[in-house]
Amino acid sequence: MNEWKDLFIGGEWITPESGRHIEVISPHTEEPIGRAAAAGTADVDRAVAAARRAFDEGPWPRTDPAERVAVIRRLAALYGERRDELAALITAELGAPISFAERAQVALPWSMMSAIADIADGYPWQEKRPGVYGQDIVLRREPVGVVAAVIPWNMPQFLTVTKIVPALLAGCTVVLKPAPESPLDALFLAGLFEQAGLPPGVVSVIPADRDVSAHLVAHPGVDKVSFTGSTAAGRQVAAACAANLTRVGLELGGKSAAIALEDADPAAVATAVRFSGMGMAGQICNALTRVLVPANRVDEHADALAATLSALKVGDPTDPRTEMGPLVAERQQRRVREYIDIGVREGARLVTGGTGLPEGVERGWYVRPTVFSGVDPSMTIAREEIFGPVIAVLPYRDEDEAVRIADDTEYGLAGAVFTADTERGLGVAARVRAGTFGVNQGYSMDPAAPFGGVKASGYGRELGREGIEGYLDIKSISIAAP
After folding, report:
1. What is 30-52 written as a DSSP string?
2. How far apart, in whole angstroms, are the C-alpha atoms of residue 241 and residue 217?
3. Under CATH, what is the fold of the domain 256-446?
4. Where are the domains of the chain?
5. 368, pLDDT greater than 80
6. Active-site pick, 251, 323, 385, 462
7. What is the mean pLDDT of residues 286-301?
8. Is there a catalytic annotation at residue 251?
């Protein structure tokens, strides 16, 4: 049993004033595997106050950027030494297959730390610019202040790193609020922050429920909120930030389309769909969940998807051979099953999968990988974010209609196109309204490339130099000409 009795606030481990805790349930066994301290609103106030002092009075924002880079490199070294422990913890906590946890849940954020530090190492924190009227202009890029980072449960370490590391490199102080489904890995990371030698108050970690999150994002002591979660929650966060004119970055939901052109290989498309989200049972915001195919190749593509996804080994996430584990919670399992029932009722053809447990699985919050064909763009399963292993195959007549269908959604997070003609693929990518896109692959989370969405998928960017700039203000200084 993993147990964390305290919160990490102001550089110290502190018993929560709320006296509450979070019981963490295994999605595989449906039994408790850990307990974590749960913050209340008084704990939020304490964490924000510590971050405020560390920013307004402490050394971190005034430290040379090269020294901040050195701290992050030290953190990356500590992280690397503990990554096997962290992967096993995430597998127990979230049901992520251990092979996926090692690769994507831990190794990816570990590599991101060093990559983002490299970007910061060469970043122009100050530059001179000649003024139009003969004066000199100096531009300083300065930290925005206290950041509230609100993290969902599906990719907790990756999303934490892509928020906290750029914020710290920019010179900000951070209050991290992980989801109640994933408090254990966040508190584990807090211990590494402590070992890395960050000044007190620069990072606080306070697991909490949604009501406490609302108190944090509306807090007048916060200068920026960085939020990843559902679009519905994102709208509430944006409204709360508007009241205080708090800066906010939102990475929200998606209903991403994979457009298979006439010359696309159905097996290659199916493989890309599998890798875009099935490692977390479809619980990935930029997963390719709508597959748009030529009307005369629908069966070919549906069969390839069915063959690929039904061959996945689903079950015990601690087994290295497992390729897909359970959903994170019983409510999530129930939600996905309801969407599958809706798809059948609305007339879509169930090619594989369904609401039953996978073969050989007797308990746990599992759903079989599911493929629907004959899906109309107006159907619920083609429009709403399911956040589970459910794929909808939609036919199109020509490229123009494919682009129209891809854009016929409130979301605009990601997408992909598959074709033997890369230049044609780039042309399609330019036409679809989305923040990120892949050609002959799902979108790759490259640390050099900014990631984020448009429309109801949010605004702001993470990763790349743009990810650091999201935590900076620009100060312009004009110097009188001699």
Report:
1. -SEEEEEE---HHHHHHHHHHHH
2. 7
3. Aldehyde Dehydrogenase; Chain A, domain 2 (3.40.309)
4. 2-252+457-478, 256-446
5. yes
6. 251
7. 98
8. yes
